Known about the structure:
heterodimer; A: 283 residues; mainly alpha; MetI-like fold; elongated; B: alpha/beta; 10 helices; 28% helix
Amino acid sequence: MSAVVQTRRRGNAGLLRFLIRRSPLGLALVTLFFLSAVFGPHFAPHSMTDTNLAMALQGPSAEHWLGTDPLGRDVFSRLLGASRVAGQAFLIVVLIGGIAGTALGLFAGGRGGLIDLVVSRVVEILQGFPTILVAIVIVALLNPSLTNAMVAVGLAAIPDFARVSRSVAIQLRDREFIQAARGLGAGEMRILWSEVLPNMAGPLVVIASFDGAQAVLWEASLSFLGLGVQPPDPSFGSMLREAQNYLAIQPSLAIIVGLAVSGFILGMNLLGDALGDYFEQAR
Amino acid sequence: MSAPLVTVKNLKKTFPVRESVFRRATRELRAVDDVSFAVSRGETLGLVGESGCGKSTLARCVARLTEPSDGSILFDGQEIARLSTRELRPMRRNIQLVFQDPMSSLNPRKRVGTILREALSIQGLVSGRARQDARIAELLEQVGLSPTFAGRLPRELSGGQRQRIGIARALALEPRLIVADEPVSALDVSVQAQILNLLKDLQEQLGLTMLFISHDLGVVRHVSDRVGVMYLGKLVELAPADAFYEAPLHPYSRALLASVPLPDPAARGRAVRPIEGDMPSPIYPPAGCRFHTRCPIAQEICSRTEPPLTDHGNGRLAACHFASPFASARETERAAPQPSQAKMGD
């Protein structure tokens, strides 16, 4: 009987096919980025931190595919390491912002009334803080590190998720299937969790893709200012800072890192748009 | 006959209305205003009226999706009008709703099997996956669908199929009362009949009691044992279906029936003037009889005194000073020399 009554989800083959058709470039760039974030450091041809001043500031060669930096480190290897750092930034921000923001928005929009009023004002206050200021305060209170910097950015992402999930929850609150669940005797929490939340997946994935891209940019900015990843560890920001002093001598350094960051952001935005379209048409 | 399954007494549901954003709610919209009726076991009571007359609000009150402002609802002798959300939960399985828009009443992200499984597990009625699977298959067959539909998403179904799922979900809890709120008005005419027949069959098989809400008199006639007519939050007529369709007592009922398109061309000759004007706002209901602004036979008394719902024999109730079962629509027009305020463009 259970073979007949099949209620499990089918695979997401449809989504993948849609993305390949709709945004091949975005999908390729993002896939490349995440592959290098996950596996890159294992396949790095050279050490990311060992210096060799005799080999400093060389252009691309068979040995060093993307050349070497002012301390003679292999740029390609450091770029792979930086992509992992950026991937971590992406994850931390989306997890903090996504879980806290969605929970707040779901609760506020789903319950309405006084709860909504209070949560909405708190979210607005949170939104009022400039991200960079929050990051500086947190890093000053604790110490400069990737995690601390990204916690600050994650806090700043909470309002985005909260606003989107709240508005979707409000749209859904009076739909008939919610009333049907209530009529079956489902509790309000169960309704939020099992009826409302699954219908938010689309908008949330889209927000996550944009805020995740923002997170990578923030990681680069904060590390550039010395508030994030500390030397000698590689990150997009710290690599750009090192490159800026040698713009005249070895411009390819800055160009390569800049291209890597822009490529990822572009890919993520293209993918985010495509995801938005997918969920729009699947509705 | 035994006591009725549902007894609604002096039910009121009002909504606060803000006249401006800067002021507190000062007036109220009386969606359901002092309505009383009873539904016997195994009976179908059809409720008709124009949109905005309060019939859906009434349905929501009876199903306790919303709390009535005043009055009482006895279900099988138990007062449910004042129960809290928590106290209601065990009551829920007795009363189930069938909704109007079958697309909106099914969660678009859930497969049919999941929707039905949740209905079974929320109240802990059927536990264990295998037993739930068996019951899901049984429910699907009961509403005329193959068990393979369990794997489908709502968007993969036609309107009629979706409404069948909505009915299956309502049946999952083995309710005693089904409140059907415009269950076929979102469907194609060809599908409407199928769903109506399904509801009728299920009612006979399972001994269900049904409160059937619709704006369509033809649809109501098909399923109802008794018919209630609502106007501006009031029940203006309540009568056995046969008698009602034969000769309605209330001028509003007559006007409604007259506006039903007739399939028989020969019968079209007796078509009367359709009802004029719009329904007044339920925030500012007219004084006296609420229908007097549009009534073809209104007299002076109608704008002063509100007629109570009175018994005219044979279980027929009507709220009209001049209710008469014998006057045909044409005669009543002749009997009304001053057709009142209603604009009669000549």
